[in-house]
Design goal:
Low-confidence stretches: 442-510, 595-670
CATH architecture of the largest domain: 3-Layer(aba) Sandwich
Largest sheet: 7 strands, parallel
Strand order of the largest sheet: 3-4-2-5-6-1-7
Bound molecules: adenosine-5'-diphosphate, magnesium ion
Number of strands: 20
Helix content: 25-40%
Shape: globular
Radius of gyration: 27 Å
Structural class: alpha/beta
CATH superfamily of the largest domain: P-loop containing nucleotide triphosphate hydrolases
């Protein structure tokens, strides 16, 4: 490699772009930008491999803008992205960089937005289209999108498009665009199917690979907590309280149902939290991300797909509440923090059985992941007291308290009570809704602290190294307040609350009967076990853990599941994988003998390619049954949002706000 490129000007970008870059505050090109921009401007095909957060968007957006003919109001470039969030984000980036290019028009098109609006926008004309594969295909088929002037095509996050089953659509689009186009493919990883696409559709591509020791992952501190019988929700809330420099978090769970469930529980505990899943209408999803950006939300509970590509710099923490399916998903998840040069923290909840995944992640990120212990209630109390004291000091420093001095002075004389008594009573009143003594908190099984080989003492918490029957005694003896009430009798409290905390998500999971079901997709249809798991988990709201062995046969598969109630069976019959309804039913004896790994590598190739005709005659799927090769996001629409339960993503926290305007979890005030 040559000298590192110091400035965007050295890349021969036109002046309007340089001024826009100065305005957004980019000083130097990132490595992938420095490598790609000159090649792109020279018209070369590109194969770019770089982790999330390395600046891939500008790497293709800037040269596309530099070569644009503003006088030709027809799509000259098409960018394909796996999700609508990403399509919007990329379109916004174009807009930003083109700030000084009057008349420039970029149009995002994605499923879930009204066709009418899109058709109108398309007919008005745009220079650049950013879209998800399904919707772009729709418009090409309807001839509402004319790509005859197309000069460049960019595949952004190609590996994710593969993971989501869009790769056939992408190929279809590649075959229906002018052959003379320039093509660039960007991907965080290069699994074989992506390589094959590159070989087939790119002309002598220049390969640009940025080593994964990128700033982003390096800027993220990775930790894990071993889940040992303890309640994950309880652990989560304690961690949120104790974490240093907490600003905002994205919490990853596996199912749509879990996003809503956990977001509700966090909201009930005073956090400004909302769910983000493929179930929300487009408007609501955008609202959730905007609210996270603006600070009216601090926590978003999301599925992998829904959170893909979100770029909100204030996200300080990523919590892997449910383990990711593979290391790539993990890398994508944690890439939601450590954005724009900030520090980030990633916490992984992992069970002893899943320790192999931890090792795999360490290898993939080339970084150790450090074990953390569950914060004790004592530590939580200490943190709350510290924050409380700070709020008092801030109030003294900033507010005009004359009137209140007078109230206190009168009370001292009239009631002959001491200032300290008054202060203590006020402190009591002020903390009532969010007690300084978090005795509503269960201390999960003491053994998780004492027996775990991974429990490490941190932040000076000797109480954990020297467990006492009362658990918190050494804390009580240390700095913060000693509480007159006997320390929390954790065993009895934990025992009382346990059943609620571990209540199964759906009643059927308690029955304990496992049934082998037959579904009508198999190897010949290109079904992947993880797609089957995804479809069943998402549409059925079934915890992934309850999905047992999956056996793939040529034209059908079998799946072991807890016995399904009828309504759920009906839903799953209509659920689609690879666009085919599962038509699930109990398997006949003898059906389903062969074993396959349930979770193959993400880059595993679909076994068979769908015939074209079938793609063209693609059925429109019903609104509520279509996690499939091309998930609902592509089709669900405006109209269909109406019959979904009213998710609370847009709900303001209930009227039970603590008297302080921010929960204690937030420390960022000053
Ligand atoms: P990727 O697509 O590789 O995941 P993005 O294009 O989303 O990465 O960029 C990640 C973040 O870095 C964005 O917030 C973007 O604005 C910022 N960024 C990109 N290039 C630069 C640069 N040269 N200097 C400073 N920030 C940049
Ligand atoms: Mg990107």
């Amino acid at each position: 490699m040559t000298e590192p490129i110091e400035s965007f000007a050295a890349l021969n970008l036109p002046a309007p772009l340089l001024s826009a870059l100065a305005e957004v505050g980019y000083e130097t090109p990132s490595p992938i930008q420095a490598a790609c921009i000159p090649l792109f401007m020279a018209g070369r095909d590109l194969l770019g491999e770089a982790q999330t957060g390395t600046g891939k968007t500008a790497a293709f957006a800037l040269p596309l803008l530099a070569r644009l003919d503003l006088n030709l109001k027809a799509p000259q470039a098409l960018v394909l992205t796996p999700t609508r969030e990403l399509a919007i984000q990329v379109a916004e980036a174009f807009q930003k960089y083109a700030h000084h290019m009057p008349g420039f028009h970029v149009l995002p098109i994605y499923g879930g937005q009204s066709m009418v609006i899109q058709l109108r926008a398309l007919s008005r004309g745009a220079h650049i289209i950013v879209g998800t594969p399904g919707r772009v295909m729709d418009h090409l088929e309807r001839k509402s999108l004319d790509l005859s002037n197309l000069k460049s095509l960019v595949l952004d996050e190609a590996d994710e498009m593969l993971r989501m089953g869009f790769i056939d659509d992408v190929e279809w689009i590649l075959e229906h665009t002018p052959a003379a186009r320039q093509t660039a493919l960007f991907s965080a990883t290069m699994p074989d199917p992506i390589r094959r696409i590159a070989q087939r559709y790119l002309r002598e591509p220049e390969q640009v690979k940025i080593r994964s020791a990128t700033t982003t992952v390096a800027a993220i501190k990775q930790k894990y907590w071993q889940v040992r019988g303890a309640d994950k929700l309880e652990a989560l809330t304690r961690m949120l309280e104790i974490e240093e420099d907490f600003d905002a978090a994205i919490i990853f769970v596996r199912t749509k149902l879990a996003t809503v469930d956990l977001a509700d529980k966090l909201e009930a505990r005073g956090y400004a939290a909302a769910a983000l899943s493929g179930d929300l209408t487009q408007g609501l999803r955008e609202q959730v991300i905007d609210r996270l950006k603006s600070g009216s939300l601090d926590i978003v509970v999301a599925t992998d797909v829904a959170a893909r590509g979100i770029d909100v710099p204030r996200v300080s923490h990523v919590i892997n509440y449910d383990v990711p399916y593979d290391t790539e998903a993990y890398v994508h998840r944690i890439g939601r923090t450590g954005r724009a040069g900030r520090a980030g923290v990633a916490i992984l909840f992992i069970s002893p059985r899943e320790m192999r995944m931890l090792k795999a992640i360490e290898r993939a990120t080339r970084q150790p992941i450090e074990p953390i212990a569950l914060p004790t209630r004592g530590e939580v109390a200490e943190r709350r007291v510290t924050q409380f004291k700070q709020q008092i000091l801030d109030t003294i420093a900033e507010e005009n308290l004359d009137f209140f001095y007078e109230v206190v002075r009168r009370m001292e004389t009239e009631e002959s009570v001491a200032t300290r008594q008054i202060a203590a009573a006020l402190a009591f009143l002020a903390q009532r809704e969010r007690p300084l003594r978090p005795d509503g908190m269960e201390d999960p099984v003491a053994s998780s602290r004492t027996e775990s080989p991974y429990a490490v003492p941190s932040r000076g918490a000797p109480s954990r190294a020297v467990p006492s029957p009362r658990g918190e005694s050494s804390y009580a003896a240390s700095s913060a307040p000693t509480f007159d009430k006997p320390a929390w009798s954790e065993r009895s409290e934990a025992a009382e609350r346990k059943p609620r905390a571990e209540a199964p998500k759906r009643a059927f999971s308690a029955s304990g009967v496992t049934v082998r079901y037959r579904i009508e997709v198999g190897k010949n249809q290109g079904a992947l076990p993880k797609e089957i798991v995804g479809a069943i988990a998402n549409e059925g709201g079934i915890d992934g853990k309850l999905i047992g062995q999956i056996n793939l046969f040529d034209d059908y598969s079998t799946v072991e599941l807890p016995e399904l109630p009828n309504d759920l069976l009906e839903t799953l019959k209509r659920t689609r994988v690879r666009q085919l309804p599962l038509r699930i039913r109990p398997a006949a004896p003898g059906e389903g003998e062969k074993t396959f790994a349930r979770r193959p590598r993400a880059d595993e190739a679909p076994k068979a390619r769908r015939p074209r005709e079938d793609e063209a005659a693609r059925p429109r799927r019903p609104a509520n049954a279509d996690f499939s090769a091309r998930p609902k996001r592509e089709f669900s629409d405006a109209g269909s949002g109406g019959n979904k339960p009213p998710y609370r993503a847009d709900k303001k926290p209930a009227g039970t706000k603590p008297p302080f305007d921010k929960p204690f979890a937030k420390r960022k005030e000053r």
